[in-house]
Amino acid sequence: GYSGVTGPADGWSMLTEKIQQISPTRLKTADDLIGRMETQIAHLKSTSDFHRLKQHAVMREWLEMAMRYNSDSPKVKEMSGSLESRLETDKKEFSAAIDKRAWQGNSTGPNAEAALSYFDRSKEWFKPPHAGKVLGVVIHGDWSVQERDILGNPNMYGIPVFVAVLMEEEKETGLARVYDLTLRTEQKQGAKPEPPFTSDTVGSSYYIRADKIV
Questions:
Q1: Using 50, 70 and 90 to split pLDDT, how confident is the model at 19?
Q2: Residue 144 has what pLDDT?
Q3: N or C: more exposed end of the chain, with fewer CB within 10 A?
Q4: pLDDT value at position 13?
């Protein structure tokens, strides 16, 4: 029941066929990479602030790879001629969006002081190897029930907080990271809507100019 290379020339024919497929395959791979780039560029505006400019470097790497596969591809040539201007446009739009963002003004009082203490005590937030300096916090909402016991009684409360931090690795950029969190009290019977905070949940995050945090 064996079927395969049986004739004297079958092996050579198969080898020739595979060699002939190399060039079309390299072209298809190059064009596929350009297609992926187009999709990624189209979604840059919805990319997380913290990864958006990093994607620019990825796009350049993909273009280099596509050129190694087939630099004569019309799609590769077109992308090669337009990529830098498109990335520069995205960079300007990204910067303009950051410039429009405002800070509500640092909060004061017991809740704000407890929030600052929470980040200072945390073993994870803004500590090495990703160290950062907290520039301020904003309490931007009211207390809410986070959890209830089996009888429906509140046993944990939370309050929404913006925290702005200048990461050590990003000091030269002049950008601060803003995280929108809910800081939560200890889970216990008879919990009250008041500090101290013992845990958090994280919502959105974005960049803002560090000099706006006052």
A1: low
A2: 97
A3: N
A4: 59
Instruction: Supply the pTM of this predicted model.
Output: 0.82
Question: CA 195 → CA 87, 125, 155, distances in Å?
Answer: 46, 18, 14
Contact 156, 145 (CB under 8 A): yes
DSSP letter string, 110-159:
HHHHHHHHHHHH-SSTT-TTS-EEEEEEEE-S--EEEEE-TTS-EEEEEE
Q: Shortest CA distance to 200 belongs to which of 163, 172, 170?
A: 163
Cα 4-8-10 angle, rounded to 5 deg: 45
pLDDT, tens digit (0-9, with 9 covering 90-100), for 44-85: 999 999 999 999 999 999 999 999 999 999 999 999 999 999
Category of 36 on φ-ψ map: left (φ > 0), alpha (ψ -120 to 50) or beta: alpha
Residue count of the chain: 214
Angle at which helix 74-99 crosses helix 49-70, to 10 degrees, equals 170
